[in-house]
Amino acid sequence: MTIAISSLTKSFGPTAVLRGIDLSINDGELVALLGPSGSGKTTLLKIIAGLDWPDAGGLVVNGQNWLDLPAQKRRIGFVFQHYALFPHMTVRDNIAFGLSVRPRAERPGKSVIAAKVTELLALLQIPHLADRYPTQLSGGQRQRVALGRALAIEPAVLLLDEPFGALDAAIRRDLRRWLREVHQQTGSTTLFVTHDQEEAFELADRVVVMGEGRIEQIGSADQIHDRPASPFVARFMGAVVELPVTLRAGRAEAAGLDARALERRAMADGPAQLFLRPDAIALEADPASPWVLAHKSSNGAMIRASMRRADGTEVPVDLLRHSAPDLTLGTAYRLRPLTGAVFALDGIAQSDAPRPLPILKEKRQ
Ligand SMILES: Nc1ncnc2c1ncn2[C@@H]1O[C@H](COP(=O)(O)OP(=O)(O)OP(=O)(O)O)[C@@H](O)[C@H]1O
């Protein structure tokens, strides 16, 4: 199923929650909606499910206007973070539920439903749990059953709203890999909401970054890392270094900075802000540079070099230990970013303060 969302808006009272969403999803694609709390991800999902309605805009699925269709006619599979399975039903009956409550004319026969459930139990790798009740399952097992229940109706679109949010990190990782496999086998067009970057990038074909009711960027992990479309995206991705620069002929300039590897920006000359990632900066010895190696540390795999300028500004640089050059404390090095993004100062919300950089678990050298 293809989904075409156009100019979708939604407000709750005075609060604009979706401010013009345009998004096309291909048949069989797995797309992650990634964004901070309150960015409108769940509201968008609910509108697709028919549990809420937009103020304006379009929602067309496989050529059909879904805004004219009530929720029960949309054939949606929905899995929430806290999915309530029916406690008095076994796993088998929970998965069969969506099929067994269909109107008589559309309901498959009992043996067809039983065969479908058996097929799903195998796909979900839980045949051994078929006769258990929800209270006899772990959280991860419950979410597998919840997905089974959503898949049983052969949904046109599968919507997953932080389905693993309540589970611990190791189980989440297992379930992610498992969900990817299930998706490959079912080919359901799937929208997955998360605020966890790692989850979004590991699972999805494309990631949609949302902020304050707008789509800030759509792309792969590499595109979003290397070419954040806005200061918001750069900061949301975390571990970002911001440096004031002067833009000249589309190129960022500052003392001790060699930004020749970055694409030129079609922006007016003048002051701007350069956003860099510590793991995408190379260092080259340059006695004329104001950046001096203040300290370095290693966690075994990576070396973190802290470059300091006389005004106290620090730039962390992360280098793979086995391919890092020999670095000498107190020596001046030029910063040579490999990727990075420049934004005009007027596009940068100063109130949206940069997040602190994560500290590497390190052993000072
Ligand atoms: N029924 C409602 N009435 C009023 N405000 C609402 C309603 N539903 C959501 N909101 C508001 O809309 C905004 C977006 O909410 P939404 O749940 O879509 O965000 P989200 O990105 O899914 O966040 P989270 O990751 O925390 O679930 C929030 O500010 C929320 O308080």
Structure description:
One of its GO terms (biological process) is quaternary ammonium group transport. It is an enzyme of class 3 (hydrolase). It comes from Pseudotabrizicola alkalilacus. Keywords: ATP-binding, Hydrolase, Nucleotide-binding, Sulfate transport, Translocase, Transport. This protein has 365 residues and is of the alpha+beta class. It folds into 2 domains: 3-223, 3-Layer(aba) Sandwich (Rossmann fold); 242-364, Beta Barrel (OB fold (Dihydrolipoamide Acetyltransferase, E2P)), CATH 2.40.50.140. Helix content is 23%, strand content 32%. It is built from 8 helices and 20 strands. A 6-stranded mixed sheet has the order 6-7-8-3-9-10, sandwiched between helices. Strand 11 (241-248) and strand 12 (251-253) form a beta hairpin. Helix 2 (91-100) packs parallel to helix 4 (139-152) and helix 3 (110-123) crosses helix 4 (139-152). Residues 351-365 have low confidence and may be disordered. The structure holds adenosine-5'-triphosphate (ATP). The site of adenosine-5'-triphosphate (ATP) has 11 residues, from helix 1.
What's a concise summary of this model?
Keywords: ATP-binding, Hydrolase, Nucleotide-binding, Sulfate transport, Translocase, Transport. This protein is of the alpha+beta class. Helix content is 23%, strand content 32%.
Annotation keywords:
365 residues; alpha+beta; Rossmann fold; OB fold (Dihydrolipoamide Acetyltransferase, E2P); 6-stranded mixed β-sheet; 4-stranded antiparallel β-sheet; 8 helices; 20 strands; elongated; disordered C terminus; binds adenosine-5'-triphosphate; Sulfate ABC transporter ATP-binding protein; EC 3.6.3.25
